[in-house]
Backbone:
């Protein structure tokens, strides 16, 4: 019996141990048993889980007060009990984060509300009741339905004659329609409508500015330069500190050759905005052409360097380089020309003409055959003495007929010209050299070259002509030597990096869109006939339609 009792006790003990072992293992692996209770830690007090009743977060300004029967010191047993870290409730992050996100969301919404509430500078109080109708008209314009948009805005104006935006919408519709129909009469209606916008009481300043700037632009398109200038001048009086308006007014003056007026405008702009790149380049252009190369180079350099809109033009790089060259800053000039070529403003650092047809082949010097001018060259060379004698007769009797070169290309000396044809038209001077002009009349690509000239050129000893380029690549220039002095250091021409001299009775052909320079250091005058001809790659259509230069 004792043995059996002992066996039973051993069996029971074994079962208990297995049960305990399984419980601990199950807790560790599955988390389904309270291992603290099993291991004897239950006396530390109950642990509140996430599913327990939530405890309010502590208020730092008003900490929670203990109940009367739980004041410190009344329950000595509880005071002695150790406090479990698990019994201290941490702030519920899942509840805090949504509150923070909600606050941030409301802040963003408030910002959006503020943006939405910002008034539209183009909209007046008269426009607000019909905003949806105005937007409908704008949508028609965006879809290219100019005629429908015109009718829509006309109908809107009938019921809302005091709406500046409706009138502006009509002007915009007419502008689009004039382009679609290629109609100048519709464009005139458009110009009138833009002018009517600003006459409506309460027209917002932003809408007034946009209307008049567009009106001026359309007037310029029609060649109404005087009207365009008046429009800009009116707007400048309305907005005397608006540099955009003033800059455009300056351009308006330049377009009608009132450079001194433009100069005043750009000086005003620079008083308002000293770093205005547009004003710097345009004022630099004016000052440089007045002969102040140092100041011109400084202003042009600052303006071009600003990279502001309207400053990256071949014209400004052209004149900046020229001003630098004339102030003996040759290396800087070459860098400017190279940079212009890299930007695509010039065809190359040497070929810097600004009115070009891109597909044309080019080289500094040409043969008569390459130029397609063999017959012209033959006639000129056969008649060179007659051409020379008529020129000398004019020089001897009335030297005043040879006029000073007027493009500011001469550095030193005396250089005069006697023009027979210009922009494809014969001049009155042909009456003084009738045989020469009769010969030219038989050369249609010469007399009809609307981008060229035909003229005598006389250059006195000690003359130097600055490096320069012609305005276009659409022509080639022929020089017929008439009186070529042999004494002294002679006369020579550089085109790009190649040098040539003239011969009496011989024609020299070069492309004057390349940089060229002349020295006349002989002991007597040099006389030549200059004959421009169309480039051989120019088509008959282009000869008729290209603008004259």
Residues:
């Amino acid at each position: 019996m004792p043995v059996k009792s002992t066996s039973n006790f051993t069996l029971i003990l074994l079962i208990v141990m297995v049960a305990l072992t399984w419980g601990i293992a199950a807790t560790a692996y599955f988390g389904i048993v309270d291992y603290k209770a099993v291991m004897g830690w239950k006396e530390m007090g109950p642990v509140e889980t996430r599913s327990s009743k939530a405890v309010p977060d502590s208020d730092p300004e008003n900490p929670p007060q203990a109940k009367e029967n739980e004041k410190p010191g009344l329950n000595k047993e509880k005071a002695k009990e150790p406090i479990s870290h698990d019994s201290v409730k941490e702030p519920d992050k899942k509840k805090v984060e949504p509150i923070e996100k909600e606050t941030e969301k409301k802040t963003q919404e408030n910002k959006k509300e503020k943006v939405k509430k910002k008034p539209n500078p183009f909209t007046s109080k008269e426009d607000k009741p019909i905003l949806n109708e105005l937007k409908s008209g704008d949508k028609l314009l965006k879809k290219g339905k100019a005629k429908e948009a015109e009718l829509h805005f006309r109908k809107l104006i009938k019921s809302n004659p005091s709406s500046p935006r409706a009138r502006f919408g009509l002007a915009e519709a007419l502008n689009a329609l004039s382009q679609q129909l290629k109609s100048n009469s519709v464009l005139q209606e458009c110009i009138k409508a833009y002018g009517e916008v600003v006459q409506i009481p309460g027209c917002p300043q932003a809408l007034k500015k946009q209307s008049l700037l567009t009106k001026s632009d359309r007037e310029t398109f029609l060649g109404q330069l005087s009207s365009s200038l008046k429009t800009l001048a009116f707007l400048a009086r309305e907005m005397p500190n608006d540099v955009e308006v003033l800059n455009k007014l300056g351009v308006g003056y330049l377009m009608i050759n009132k450079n001194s007026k433009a100069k005043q405008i750009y000086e005003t702009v620079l008083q308002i905005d000293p770093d205005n790149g547009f004003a710097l380049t345009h004022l630099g252009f004016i000052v440089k052409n007045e002969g102040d190369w140092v100041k011109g180079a400084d202003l042009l350099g600052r303006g071009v360097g600003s990279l502001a809109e309207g400053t990256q033009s071949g014209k400004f790089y052209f004149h900046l380089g020229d001003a630098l060259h004339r102030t003996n800053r040759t290396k800087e000039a070459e860098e400017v020309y190279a940079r212009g070529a890299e930007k695509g403003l010039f065809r190359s650092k040497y070929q810097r003409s600004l009115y070009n047809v891109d597909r044309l082949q080019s080289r500094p010097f040409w043969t008569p055959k390459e130029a397609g001018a063999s017959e012209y060259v033959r006639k000129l060379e056969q008649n060179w003495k007659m051409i020379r004698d008529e020129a000398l007769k004019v020089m001897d009797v009335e030297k005043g007929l040879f006029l000073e070169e007027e493009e500011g290309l001469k550095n030193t000396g005396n250089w005069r010209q006697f023009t027979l044809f210009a922009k494809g038209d014969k001049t009155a001077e042909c009456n003084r050299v009738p045989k020469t002009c009769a010969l030219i009349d038989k050369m249609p690509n010469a007399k009809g070259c609307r981008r060229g000239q035909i003229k005598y050129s006389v250059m006195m000893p000690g003359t130097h002509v600055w490096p320069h380029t012609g305005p276009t690549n659409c022509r080639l220039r022929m020089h017929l030597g008439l009186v070529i002095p042999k004494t002294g250091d002679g006369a020579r021409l550089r085109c790009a990096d190649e040098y040539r001299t003239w011969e009496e009775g011989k024609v020299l052909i070069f492309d004057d869109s390349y940089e060229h320079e002349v020295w006349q250091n002989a002991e007597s005058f040099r006389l030549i006939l200059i004959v421009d001809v169309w480039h051989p790659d120019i088509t008959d259509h282009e000869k008729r339609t290209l603008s004259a230069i």
